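FORM 7B: Structural annotation worksheet

SECTION A. Query
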Amino acid sequence: MVENQDFLLTDCPMPGLERLEARFHGHAYDPHRHETYAIGITCDGAQAFRYRGAAQVSRAGQIMVLHPDEPHDGHAAVPDGFSYRMIYVDPALIGQALDQEGAGARGLPFVPDAVSRDRAMAALIGEAFADFPGKLDPLAGDALLAGLADALARRGQPERRRPAQVPQRALLRVRDFLDAEFARPIDSADLEAVADLDRFSLARAFRRSFGTAPHRYLVARRVTAARSLIAEGTPLAEVAGACGFTDQSHLNRHFKAHFGMTPGRYARLVAR
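SECTION B. Predicted structure
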């Protein structure tokens, strides 16, 4: 098979939720990690990846659950390649769906099996992609989040942690600040001022609630914005400056670490 048969389609139908559909033959992704839960299904073929120190293979109809900040890669496990659908979900939304006080009070569910057969999860993913890449109705989006949260809780257990000592409102202010100001330089003093907390308490509490560190969340916002501009055909040098990266090599390094491929390869895949 040749690379021009590979493709990748994504959309963000609601805040904190992203859908992806792709096909790959041979190599797909270099090692990378997301700040989100990644919940998906292999539609045909088989894909292999390393996750939490072990080799995994997901075959047609099997479900994958990857946790925030866990490195993984990806490649075809059969000559004909594989296709798959994936939903990326902000951990805070999962926490909110499970506990009205937020993830910090209850803890995020951890699913030990990266690959499994799960009819309920398969049905949820099928519904989420029924009109892809068309619009996802807001009510359908809310139902999807609730269903995924329940499925994760059913499959796993909350991570063990000490009770959160930081007010959730302070963490939400920090996250909103990072969402709004990602394109400019941000340091720890900025976040301390927003949260009225010291940087170390903030870093620990932010990870408990959102599944990743403040800096990784900031970089994720930058590379996500960069991906949208790249898909629109914006030159990479312009993308780097517009999204808070010091130069194009800085963009390339973080984009590859986050999405498992270079910005140039991504641009070629989405252009087909």
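SECTION C. Observations
The longest strand covers residues 37-51. Residues 3-158 form a domain with the Jelly Rolls fold (CATH 2.60.120.10).

SECTION D. Sign-off
Analyst initials: ____
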